[in-house]
């Protein structure tokens, strides 16, 4: 069973994404901010894919993405950004930080699931 | 760092992977999430319709929330047929567009034709309102017929006025003739009849001279006094009353001349109101017994015995018999204004050279016992009888009356050229010829001639305005005196008209004229009237045209208003005239259809406008948001330009979030770099500080070595000296040995001293060797330090290079830093270079030191060897002392050995000198290294200062 790690500060969004991915058959773990997520990643088995929000209190998802990319073991885990930042250059920048995909919120459930299915290892 | 509260869900998920439902208590949200999952499953399963239904449910239930928005997003992605615009509207728009094109083409063609007209007029015409245009068309359409009709009416009226003028003139002339000619005849007849009756009643035989003589008085009274009691004028107007006998001789005469004839000045201007008074007559006395039998009318009466009447032309000679020649005589005036109106040549008519008289003459026969005894003659001489003419003018109300004897004007009230009456002028030939050639006709013919002119006559009369012949009279336009007249002439006949009406020829004319000015005035009046009527009709047409035009334009105006309303965007309006079958009805229906199309279009346009406005608002808000974000970002990163590398712009939802992130990472990398530079600088500084004392020690040691080497040099020189003194001593010993054996003991002592000296040398050499060894050790230390400095400098160089690259990326802000980094790099390079040169120098020193060491070793060995030799020498000396004879032989050897020693000592000296030089050089280099280290420390401090400008920790 493949696992997805979700970093999302919105309570409801966290719940929805968890529900959707859970329904799709993934083991879902969540964190609400970057520090918490980093801690989790260091102390747990690496997930098959990470879904990252960008705008969060404290460090941004982009920063976490870079931290993961610089980490020898974590850098191969595919990252999918999921943010309400909808500008084309937001997507460009986010993908440049090493992410595999970028889903703009709000998204249709199928859109997110398709993206996750495409990029999960 | 790890927040257990936040990780609760994570752990619980890991503990219970099946639990995927949201863990918050809001049941509504719970419900929505369930539905979303359901819809998602349906969509994944391909049941799109069902999924759409559920999504729509969610979208309706959670309009603004996350689930609603996600559901709408999902709905948008599920393939759906886009709503289409009703084709009818499109086609309608197309049709209208096509028809507009057609119209445009026609308009341009029309415009091409219209260019022939002046553009101003065309423009003005186009600018006129339709009501005005229609009014103008109606009015201009009406003007032409009205003008033609008015002109025709005026023309006809003018002709009728002219005809009326003529017929009135004819009537006036007739009544004038009746009043004047017939009356004078009738009146004279009555008087003559009365005279005859009185004579007869008195039984006076006028042919009996006796009776005449007896009744002369009575007869005279009869003719001079008024007879009738009737008309008062009868008394006064007659010029003559005469009784004659059977032969025509006058028996009694009553002749009067009115004052006007003799005194025309008093009657210059006609005065119709003037009464003729009897007192104005002057009685003319002439001799009696004048014969009037030669007067034709009298002769006829005397012949026939029947009374006769007529206008007679009486010769001047006869008139002079009656004493009337003065009244009758009128000079002929030949004044003709134009050749057309020229009179007949003088002599054509016998007017007795202007002395004839035109007189109304009535001759009544007086019979007694059926026997003609005489006549009564009563008459009026018309020549110059102004009073009579004026009086009758009053009756018939006619001016410009003339009486002609033939064509000769004998009485008139027409003013002549000199202001007096135009007496004596001749009528134009065009009148006198036809009139005076006209025989008197039967009464029937007369009656016909007098009839009112009929329609055809009038038509004929119109054709010949110059001269009109109605059978009896003639019209003539002429100038009398100074005025132009239309004159109607009628002939006057003498008594022959009764005797022989077919043969009777006129002996005069009478005419009534009217000033043509009157006619012109009348015509002008009629024209004015006609124009007035025409104008009134036109005004009426205009007044009628305006409402008609309004009624026509009203429909168009309504259509135009409707189009305006539609144009202004008013909706729901329709033209009411659409039930009409005419073009306006068609237009109204088309416009209504068009309005429907336009309303649909407007609605679509409004919707688009709304969308566009919303979009614009959205864009504006986003722009403002972006600007706010940029400003916030600028404020956040403002510290960086002051060197605060701890700034961390928040990565926000806005557009600048990514830029903030990029900036953050750049700043962070820069901070790391600066930190590294700082660390390196500190390390360099520390090393420099730490190495400073040892370097000084090196330097001092080097200096000490130099001075000690100097000392060694002196000692070696002393060794040389000692060797030379050994040599001398050997020489002396040889001399001494040669001299004797007593010196053997001295030699032995000297040998001992030599051994001691050599030992000292050996000690000094040893000491020098040990110092050289220490020097070598110091060099090793120096080399170690140099290696360290070199590695530091290289690392600094690398760091400075990196720093300058990062500073370049930071742009303007990193400029200062870049310069410092460059400086650091250059210093590090210099340090490396200095270190390398020190290394080279130290290597050289080491090399030479090794050589010195080797030389020292050699020296030491040779000193040891010398010592051994000295000891052997001492032994030998001892043995020489014992055996003096062998000394000489050995002294040679000693001398040889000491020379070698001296040479070796020189070599040692040379080497030590070299060592000294090298040591001095080493000392200088050591000092240079120390100085370089000092510089390096200074640079490191400067680098530290530069780096310290950056704030690296919060």
From TrEMBL, chain A:
Gene3D superfamilies: 3.40.50.2300. Residues 3-120 form the Response regulatory domain. The keyword Repeat does not apply. CDD domains: REC_OmpR (cd17574). SUPFAM superfamilies: CheY-like (SSF52172). The keyword Zinc-finger does not apply. The modification 4-aspartylphosphate is found at residue 53. Keywords: Phosphoprotein, Two-component regulatory system. InterPro entries: Bact_response_regulator, CheY-like_superfamily, Sig_transdc_resp-reg_receiver. Pfam families: Response_reg. It comes from the Bacteria. This is Response regulator.
